[in-house]
């Protein structure tokens, strides 16, 4: 086994270099500048310690954005992942047409977000949109509304823009399920478990790790979600659908205040670490006792 | 009871397929509508099927050139990403060394870093490396963007390959590198393909870095072509949706074919984790 | 042991060849303003005026003419950056690193002040003053828009003259004879239209509510002297003024009663389409829209004949030069010289005439007359420019002078104003608070 040791750094080198270049060094710059008054409108950077963080913790917009981000993460880790996993479990038994369904379900993830956003603007359009037209057609005219701009419906409406497209989850879980050892499954069948029971009690626990992975993916997807919100509701009405990346973008682009924007960036990173730790603990993704 | 459950299952499938295909059908239909039709009634059928939108798309933007760039950039970054990350993932899954968990944790942090915040410093890095406005610059960035996801997926895959396979190889006298390439990589095909698919799609649709890190036509990618169709006070949605169609149809086809191969390799029995 | 090295070598080779193969194709790209071997000074000029942008053909032609005129000396290489917002993003990132392209178009984004704050702009005062022809193109307003502290930094090509358009047929249907002279009359007309079953106004709230803020600013500017002063202030920070609150109240009423249901959350495209499809009677917008009235892809045949133009009630019209081209400091003085030549060429009388005749762009210089050719091609534009002569109150539009972080805030808060969750005072307070974030 001595041979092995010598190869470890060689195998790691490309990845580590890549990480340093695109993540570590830039992130270091972001963290350092969050301690400065750093604006595009003034070439001089002045050290201000934790002032940006103090401003952030006194900013009511920040709490709203934080709350929205956390709720979206929770929805994505539960509803979205459950939907994708359910579909994968059903397809795993290879019912007729499963290949088509599997491929079809991935299609929305291939279309650029700019187009998806446009489509949902049309679906929710208060004047000619699909939803209001349907409601009118079945005589529920009183229920029609401006879905993306009504304070009460904006948040769930925006959520709909991505929550149903669980193609990634399905693809990953299905690939993993199909590579499971058939012997284990056969053994379970012999024990007299029905098809449905096999799914729930035998297959699902074996997929825990990959489901954990998709949850981490779902959480980080929501931590970085920007374009779909920006195109559909623009973060409004008020700040009802503003999340942390949108807040960051507004500060970065609108106020040209890079130091403060980077402060929000640091918070997103910290929130991400927290999410990952929790999911890893819950799903034991990191444990090696497979 | 059983047919009832089956019916339920197919209703569920029907809903999923409807939800999944609605956007693409809508996009394709819109590429045949006039601008007024797109803006006046979202779900109507186009009044006539002509290819004016496609002609406009090709004349307004250099879409074919961008398409070629996209294929090259997304393809190369995906191949390199999967290759290098498989090596790293394998080491993390199978080797013991000091600081392993710490290094792995730090690398996986990449996943939660908001790219909006890194735009500026990444631009500096690429500029310093002399890679501004080159395909290489984008390839490196896209390799990095897909780093955490690939690492996560492939490490999981390697972990689920039985230790016995590897030990048998060592007993037979195979080297570390040979074991990796000949035994482990084939066993991890599922994970490799999943990572490759995700990495490819991620690079294919990336917009912001493509915009910031390129200036000429030599390294511009497809998503950038979409901005050609909506200026502040003028727009050509028909051409835009034609461009979206041009961008998306080949990638769906490639994806469908590609996925077929994954499954056959998985079910052919070469991999039985 | 040997095998190990061979496999490693192969791996390495594969990686390197891949990298090299891909890197090469991009290597040729020169950095901004490199002098090439045959001594032609190259100006790399990124522009958003490409694709469907109305000015695209004008810029393309100017580049061609410039390269012809300065053949062997200077050469502009056009770099297309489609999408205004993308262009601004790109310039801002380059501002941060200090390597701006030699020529930047300030446009409606006030890039000049940001570049000046970073000390990256070339002072054009001497060159312009030494050139009477060039100097003559600067109107007083253009001089103000392009100068800071008495120094000229930029040169305008286009003016922004904005009134509103109305549908003559719909006006006739509601029994309205001509556009309103006062705001009271304007709202009476809205009521008349509504009574006749016609939606009076096209409005929007997304993308910083362009159409809506035109009505809004017009009311502020004509409210009283303080209102006009507000409109003339760069980056105003106090929205808690009586005339502002009164105007916002009217905007609230307009959103609630006089416009389409999709105005709230709607984009400019939706508002434009509502007007172009003959569903609403009025839309506030600039002359660049005139081309759309006869574009059968966007509207029906013959629609152009139904459209009339007007200046706002109380004799108001938006009239301000759009911040022009400026030259940035370069390490190579030759590139700066070339860039100055380009700015002069791109804002010359010829360039302004070209813009007018080919795309109906309003010239920045008042000395550039509306030619016969332009009148024939754009009769509505000529008619509108005649009307503007009668205007007694003029200012820039609100969006051009607003702190840039307020643009998104306006889009986010207008829906709440519409729903009544915010009243006019609360709305103005939100804007004031947001403005305060700029220190």
Automatic annotation (TrEMBL), chain A:
Residues 66-279 form the ABC transmembrane type-1 domain. It holds the Pfam family BPD_transp_1. CDD domains: TM_PBP2 (cd06261). It is a multi-pass membrane protein. Keywords: Cell membrane, Membrane, Transmembrane, Transmembrane helix, Transport. It is found in: Cell membrane. The chain crosses the membrane at residues 12-36, 70-92, 104-124, 154-175, 210-231, 258-279. InterPro entries: MetI-like, MetI-like_sf, UgpAE/MalFG_permease. PANTHER family: BLL4140 PROTEIN, DIACETYLCHITOBIOSE UPTAKE SYSTEM PERMEASE PROTEIN DASB. Belongs to the binding-protein-dependent transport system permease family. This is Sugar ABC transporter permease.
TrEMBL record, chain C:
The keyword Ribosomal protein does not apply. Residues 1-20 form the signal peptide. The keyword tRNA processing does not apply. It comes from Ohessyouella blattaphilus. InterPro entries: Bact_solute-bd_prot1, SBP. This is ABC transporter substrate-binding protein. Pfam families: SBP_bac_8. Keywords: Cell membrane, Lipoprotein, Membrane, Palmitate, Signal. It comes from the Bacteria.
């Amino acid at each position: 086994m001595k041979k092995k040791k010598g190869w470890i750094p060689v195998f790691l080198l490309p990845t580590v270099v890549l990480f340093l270049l695109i993540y570590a060094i830039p992130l270091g710059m972001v963290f350092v500048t969050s301690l400065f008054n750093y604006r595009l409108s003034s070439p001089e950077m002045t050290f201000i310690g934790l002032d940006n963080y103090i401003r952030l913790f006194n900013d009511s917009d920040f709490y709203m954005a934080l709350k929205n981000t956390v709720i979206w993460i929770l929805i994505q880790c539960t509803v979205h992942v459950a939907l994708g996993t359910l579909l994968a479990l059903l397809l795993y038994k290879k019912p007729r047409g499963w290949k088509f369904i599997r491929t079809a379900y991935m299609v929305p993830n291939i279309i650029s977000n700019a187009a998806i956003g446009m489509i949902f603007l049309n679906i929710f359009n208060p004047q000619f949109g699909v939803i209001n037209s349907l409601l009118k057609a079945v005589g529920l005219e009183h229920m029609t509304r401006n879905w993306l701009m009504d304070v009460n419906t904006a948040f769930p409406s925006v959520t709909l823009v991505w929550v149903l497209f669980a193609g990634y989850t399905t693809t990953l879980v299905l690939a993993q399920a199909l590579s499971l050892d058939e012997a284990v499954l056969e053994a379970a069948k012999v024990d007299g478990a029905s098809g449905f029971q096999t799914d729930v009690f035998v297959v699902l626990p074996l997929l825990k790790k990959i489901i954990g992975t998709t949850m981490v993916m779902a959480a980080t997807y929501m931590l970085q979600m920007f374009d779909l919100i920006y195109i559909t509701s623009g973060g409004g009405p008020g700040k009802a659908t503003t999340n942390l990346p949108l807040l960051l973008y507004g500060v970065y682009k609108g106020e040209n205040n890079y130091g403060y924007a980077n402060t929000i960036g640091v918070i997103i990173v910290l929130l991400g670490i927290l999410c990952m730790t929790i999911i890893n603990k819950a799903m034991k993704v990191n444990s090696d006792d497979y | 009871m059983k047919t009832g459950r089956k019916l339920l299952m197919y209703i569920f499938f029907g809903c999923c397929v409807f939800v999944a295909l609605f956007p693409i059908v809508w996009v394709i239909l819109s590429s045949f509508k006039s601008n007024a039709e797109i803006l006046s009634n979202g779900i109507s059928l186009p009044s006539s099927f002509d290819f004016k939108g496609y002609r406009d798309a090709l004349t307004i933007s250099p879409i074919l050139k961008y398409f070629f760039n996209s294929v090259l950039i997304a393809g190369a970054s995906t191949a390199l990403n999967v290759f290098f990350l498989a090596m790293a993932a394998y080491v993390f899954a199978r080797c013991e060394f000091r600081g392993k968990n710490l290094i792995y944790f730090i690398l996986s942090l990449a996943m939660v870093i908001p790219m909006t915040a890194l735009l500026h410093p990444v631009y500096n890095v690429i500029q310093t490396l002399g890679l501004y406005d080159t395909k290489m610059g984008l390839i490196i960035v896209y390799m990095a963007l897909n780093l955490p996801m690939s690492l996560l997926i492939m490490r999981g895959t390697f972990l689920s390959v039985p230790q016995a396979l590897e030990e048998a190889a060592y007993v037979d006298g195979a080297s570390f590198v040979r074991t990796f390439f000949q035994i482990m990589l084939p066993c991890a095909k599922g994970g490799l393909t999943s990572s490759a698919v995700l990495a490819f799609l991620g690079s294919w649709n990336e917009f912001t870095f493509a915009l910031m890190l390129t200036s000429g036509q030599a390294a511009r990618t497809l998503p950038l072509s979409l901005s050609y169709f909506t200026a502040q006070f003028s727009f050509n949605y028909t051409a835009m949706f034609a461009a979206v169609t041009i961008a998306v149809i080949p990638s769906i086809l490639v994806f469908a074919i590609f996925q077929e191969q994954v499954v056959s390799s998985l079910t052919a029995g070469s991999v039985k984790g | 042991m040997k095998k190990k090295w061979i496999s490693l070598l192969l791996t390495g080779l594969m990686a390197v060849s891949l990298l090299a193969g891909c890197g090469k194709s991009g290597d040729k790209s020169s950095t901004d303003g490199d002098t090439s071997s045959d001594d032609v000074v190259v100006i790399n000029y990124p522009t958003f005026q490409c694709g469907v942008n109305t000015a695209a053909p004008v810029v393309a032609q100017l580049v061609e003419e410039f390269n012809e005129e300065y053949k062997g000396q200077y050469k502009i290489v056009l770099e297309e950056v489609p999408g205004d917002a993308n262009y601004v993003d790109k310039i801002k990132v380059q501002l941060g690193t200090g390597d701006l392209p030699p020529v930047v178009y300030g446009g409606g984004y006030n890039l000049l002040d940001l570049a000046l704050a970073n000390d990256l702009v070339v002072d054009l005062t001497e060159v312009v003053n030494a050139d009477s022809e060039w100097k003559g193109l600067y109107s007083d307003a253009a001089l103000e828009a392009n100068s800071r502290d008495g120094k000229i930094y930029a040169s305008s090509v286009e003016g922004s003259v904005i009134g509103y358009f109305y549908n003559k047929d719909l006006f006739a249907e509601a029994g309205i004879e001509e556009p309103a002279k006062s705001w009271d009359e304007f709202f009476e007309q809205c009521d008349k239209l509504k009574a006749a079953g016609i939606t009076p106004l096209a409005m929007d709230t997304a993308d910083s509510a362009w159409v809506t803020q035109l009505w809004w600013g017009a009311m502020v500017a004509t409210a009283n002297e303080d209102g006009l002063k507000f409109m003339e202030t760069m980056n105003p920070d106090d929205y808690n003024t009586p005339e502002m609150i009164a105007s916002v109240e009217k905007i609230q009423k307009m959103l609630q009663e006089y416009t389409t249901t999709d105005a709230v959350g709607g984009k400019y495209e939706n508002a434009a389409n509502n007007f172009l499809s003959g569903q609403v009677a009025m839309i506030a917008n600039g002359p660049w829209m005139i081309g759309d009235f006869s574009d059968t892809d966007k509207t029906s045949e013959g629609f152009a004949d139904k459209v009339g133009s007007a200046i706002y009630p109380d004799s108001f019209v938006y009239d301000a030069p759009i911040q022009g081209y400026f030259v940035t400091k370069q390490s190579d003085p030759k590139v700066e010289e070339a860039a100055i030549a380009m700015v002069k060429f791109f804002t010359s009388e010829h360039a302004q005439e070209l813009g007018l005749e080919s795309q109906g762009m309003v010239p920045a210089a008042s000395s550039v007359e509306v030619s016969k050719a332009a009148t024939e091609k754009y009769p509505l534009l000529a008619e509108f420019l005649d009307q503007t002569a009668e205007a007694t109150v003029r200012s820039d539009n609100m969006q051009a002078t607003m702190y840039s972080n307020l643009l998104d805030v306006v889009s986010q808060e207008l829906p709440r104003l519409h729903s009544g969750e915010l009243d006019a005072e609360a709305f103005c307070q939100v804007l004031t608070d947001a403005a305060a974030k700029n220190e």
